[in-house]
């Protein structure tokens, strides 16, 4: 099993919305709750993810998933709400 940073999808959200963060060949990508795609650097991705992981904002929940387990286009879009 390959456990590099491009093997994961990070889901951040509440019961009403979910944002997806993942890495592809071109770099980091954020998919907003509305489905918009935003390219970002690794530092920008960390600035978005770390407050949820650290618990600074109590409302958002985060959930990392392995990419081969969670087929992004089929499973995550259907079950992405917390």
Give the low-pLDDT segments: none
Gyration radius, rounded: 12 Å
Q: Approximately how much beta-strand content do the residues carry?
A: 25-35%
Overall shape: globular
* Percentage of residues assigned to helices: 10-25%
Rounded average pLDDT: 78
The rounded distance between the terminal residues' Cα atoms is 26 Å
Describe the oligomeric state of these chains in a short phrase. Answer: single chain
Secondary-structure blueprint:
Elements: E1 8-13, E2 18-24, E3 27-31, E4 37-40, H1 42-54, E5 61-66, H2 72-78
Antiparallel strand pairs: 1-2, 1-5, 2-3, 3-4
Describe the structure.
By secondary structure, the chain is α+β, with helices and mostly antiparallel strands. The protein has one domain. It is 24% helix and 34% strand. It is built from 2 helices and 5 strands. A 5-stranded antiparallel sheet has the order 4-3-2-1-5, with helices on one face. The longest helix has 13 residues. The radius of gyration is 12 Å and the shape is globular. The model has no long low-confidence stretch (mean pLDDT 78).
């Amino acid at each position: 099993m390959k456990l590099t940073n491009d093997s994961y999808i990070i889901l951040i959200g509440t019961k009403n919305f979910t944002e997806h963060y993942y890495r592809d060949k071109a770099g980091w990508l954020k998919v907003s709750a509305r489905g918009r795609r935003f390219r970002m650097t690794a530092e920008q991705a960390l600035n978005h993810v770390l407050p949820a992981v650290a618990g600074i904002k109590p409302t958002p929940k985060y959930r990392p998933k392995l990419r081969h387990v969670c087929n992004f286009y089929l499973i995550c879009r259907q079950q992405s709400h917390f």
